[in-house]
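Quick one: co-fold with phosphoenolpyruvate.
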Amino acid sequence: MRKKIIAGNWKMNKTPAEAVELAKTLINKVNTNTVDVVFCVPYIDIIPVCDVLKGSNISVGAQNVYFEESGAYTGEISPLMLKNAGVKYVIVGHSERREYFNETDDIVNKKVKKVLEHNMTPILCCGETLKQREMGITMEHIKMQIKKGFYGLNSNDAEKIIVAYEPIWAIGTGKTATSEQAQEVCAGIRQSLSEIYSNETAQKIRIQYGGSVNGKNAAEILSMNDIDGGLVGGASLKEEFADIVNY
Ligand code: PEP
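Sure, here it is.
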């Protein structure tokens, strides 16, 4: 039985003071008894939010990382720094990073490996554009992202990764994939993983859905067989996030 995991992606929102306030508001509202809960906050908010969450079951995640430990990489942040600050999860390959910062599958794969090396959990994002969906090449595209994202990793490492299926056309648009569409792709991802590794390994890997998840649609989406949680953008900045976790 895979434990559900709900992660909030705060994106480039909340100053440190605002982040502390939001974390304090949510901490008493989310029920973490049966669900893993993660706040993926901006880098500058990591330390103060970790302080607020000390003693709770909520973990802090980062939204990106660089694949070197240290050195002349102005403006980047290393996995070592994140680990030391208290980060447990790192989103890797979000579609916004792929689109605006030219992250390729090869870069994503390097980052996934580094995150694992530092005993943090990568949340590896994949998803198709509207054009790809209309052209009927959704699964082909996602299978390639999965293959490249997991390249060079053994099953032991693969089992530690969380995959987030996020159709790009559903992110921040208010358009949610139907629960059937989301289930179909998540089942396809699990099928690819079983072809790369084994059915046993594929059954252990948690797959989230992301794309306009909110308090109203969470229960239906999260009830699907191959959907083991949600990656939540907009609604993670509001008290509504607690309704998603407590669905
Ligand atoms: C996201 O950015 O990962 C996301 C799913 O955003 P939203 O929930 O706002 O669509």
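If it helps, Strands lie at 4-9, 35-40, 58-62, 89-92, 121-126, 162-165, 206-210, 229-232.
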